[in-house]
Amino acid sequence: MKYVLTLVCLLAAAVVRAQEQVEMADTMRAEGKIYVIVGIVLIVLAGMLVYLFMLDRKLSNLEKERGNRTS
Amino acid sequence: MKLWMKVTAVVLLVYTHTAGLLFDVPRLPILNETIRALYFHVPMWFGMILLYGMSIYYAIRYLRNPLEEYDIRSVEFAHVGTAFGILGMLTGMLWARYTWGAFWHGDPKQNGAAITLLVYLAYFVLRGSLENQEQRARLSAVYNLFAFAAMIPLIFIIPRMQSSMHPGSGGNPGFNAYDLDASMRIVFYPAVAGWFLIGYWIATLRVRVRKLLLIDTAS
């Protein structure tokens, strides 16, 4: 009887632990608002990358200009 | 730098910024949703180490064959690497504030990373204090070897020998602690590759600016 009771207690503890959910931003995900954040982050990232491409091209033009002058 | 490398960097970063926010992550207490910071914080450090690796590579090439080109490449990779390290430090401090309770804990990993950054800052101080180009290039190339050699125990070995809260330290191997289902690797590794490519790109831009300035002073 004692062993059965111990077993039941252990099982109950296991069940309780499984139900204990770690808090995450589930509501925000359910409402779809996470996509707003994804959108904003991607816009900022895209802006930075476009800027980098433009810098790169500007530098290429400068190099071309210098190359012509020295030759 | 080839165009396909830049496009790859863009694709990888767009992917990791989307997947990093949307994909499922392990539900762990204390970390909660901040576990996603791994996708953005750790690639800064991996990027820094890889960029410092490029820097020491060109330092060695300079010592074998003293061309100014190698010196310029070495210093610019170290420069971008340090920028990545500072970002890694700031993101880590913010993350620590919400998981460890304070911005700065004096954790072995934090201290080691801070000392590494100071070692590399001294590299720029050394360069700034020498007028002669050849002397500056040779001395800083030698210092670069010591800086990289100092970084390895500071970041990888000492934190593992002490008790550190940082994952991958205090005897914990890698970041297996919260990487049980490997679902995070498919976002994390592309993030490292993407950020490294961006750092590489910025470094090449800076090298090209330096070379333009050299032509300017020569003519």
Any overview of this molecule?
The complex is a heterodimer of chains A (71) and B (219). Chain A is mainly alpha-helical and 71 residues long. Helices cover 85% and strands 0% of the residues of chain A. The longest helix of chain A has 37 residues, at 34-70. Chain B is mostly helical and 219 residues long. Chain B has one domain (3-15, 37-218). Chain B contains six helices and no strands. Chain B has helices spanning 3-22, 38-64, 68-99, 108-128, 133-161, 185-218. In chain B, helix 4 runs antiparallel to helix 5. Chain A binds chain B through residues 21-25, 34, 37-38, 41-42, 45-46, 49, 52-53, 55-56, 59, 62-63, 66, 70, and chain B through 6, 10, 13-14, 17-18, 21-22, 27-29, 32-33, 198, 201-202, 205, 208-209, 212, 215, 219.
List keywords for this structure.
heterodimer, A: 71 residues, mainly alpha, 3 helices, elongated, B: 219 residues
Structural topology:
The complex is a heterodimer of chains A (71) and B (219).
Chain A: H1 2-19, H2 26-30, H3 34-70
Chain B: H1 3-22, H2 38-64, H3 68-99, H4 108-128, H5 133-161, H6 185-218
Helix pairs in contact in B: 1-6, 2-3, 2-5, 2-6, 3-4, 3-6, 4-5
What is the total tally of β strands of chain A?
Answer: 0
Round the Cα radius of gyration of chain A to an integer and report it: 30 Å
Q: Which shape of chain A, going by the Cα principal axes?
A: elongated
Beta-strand content estimate of chain B: under 5%
Distance between the termini of chain B: 27 Å
Count of domains of chain B:
1
Query: Roughly what fraction of the amino acids of chain A lie in strands?
Result: under 5%
The H/E string of chain A reads HHH
The structural class of chain A is mainly alpha
Please tally the helical runs of chain B, counting DSSP H or I stretches of 4 or more residues: 6
Report the average pLDDT across residues of chain B. Answer: 90
Kindly report the average pLDDT value of chain A: 81
Low-confidence stretches of chain A: none
Q: What's the total helix number of chain A? A: 3
Order of helices and strands of chain B: HHHHHH
Work out the helicity level of chain A: over 70%
Q: Largest interface, counted with CB-CB under 8 A?
A: A-B, 22 and 22 residues
Q: Main beta sheet of chain A, described?
A: none
